[in-house]
Specification:
The protein is mainly α and 290 residues long. It contains 13 helices and no strands. The longest helix is centred in the middle third of the chain and has 21 residues, at 137-157.
Amino acid sequence: MSFAQLKEITDAAGQLQLPFWRVILEDDRKERNVSEEESFETMRQMYRAMREADRSYDPSLRSASGLAGGDGAKLEQFRRQNNRLIGDFLTEVMEKAVKMGESNACMKRIVAAPTAGSCGVIPAVLLTYEEQRKTTEDNMVEALYVAAGIGEVIAASASIAGAEGGCQAEIGSASAMAAGAVAYLEGGDNDAIVHAAALAMKNMLGLTCDPVAGLVEVPCIKRNVSGAVNAIISCQMAMAGIRSAIAPDEVIDSMRRIGRLLPSCLKETAQEGLAATPTAQQVVKRLREE
C-alpha cells in the first residue's frame, strides 16, 4: 500500500482527477502487478463471499462455548414486527452484523474485514445498502475499495489488531471503513468520505478488547452491531455537511497513541474489563470443566 495517510489518497485523487475508489484500485493493480480487470474481479469475489456468508447463516448453530448463536434470527423476527423504534434499514444492519459475527463464532466462512472479530460491520452496512437501495454490484465493489483504502491507512498508521490497539483497532477501524464506504455510495465527495470515517473512529476511541474466556464472542459480536450503526450515523452527519473538528489523519494517529497507552490487560488478554466479571469467570470455569 502506497498511502500512510488519508490525505495522500485525497491529494492523489485530486491530482489524477480520479474518484477515491479508483486511486485504491490503481495502487492495488501496481502493487500486485495485475490488470484493472483482475483487481476489480478479486474485490468482487470478496464482496460475493460476504453476501454468501450472510445468506448461509444458520440460526440452529451454536458456538462450541454455547455463548453465541441464534440471536441473528431473533433480530430478523424483530425486524418483521412493527413495534420498534428504528426503521427497517438500521434494523437490518443490526441483524446482519449479529449474523455474521455468530457465523464466525460457529466456524463458518466469513471475510475478515479488517479482522475476524469485526467481520460483521462492513458486510452488514454494504449488503443492507445494496438490498434496500437496489444499487448495482459494481457500485458495491467500488465502495469496498473505499473501505479497503481507509483500512490500509489505519493499518499502516495505527493498528487493526485488538492485541495491539484494543477493540478500537478492530471494531473502530471497521466502523470507519464502513462509514467512508457508505458515504461514497450516498454520493459524498472525498471530503465527506474521510470525515465520515473520522467521525466514526472518534466514537470508538478507547474501546477495550476484553473477550470473555478469550473467545471472539462476548462482547465482540454485539459490538459489531454498534460499529455498524455508528458507521451509518457518522455517514449521515458527514453527508449533512458536518466535519470532524480534528483532522481525519489526526484521529487515526490518536487511536494509535491510545492503543499504546491501554494496559495489556485490556488488549485481548481476557484479564480485565468484562472478562474479569463474576459471570465471565463462571463461564471460564465451566469451559475448563468441560
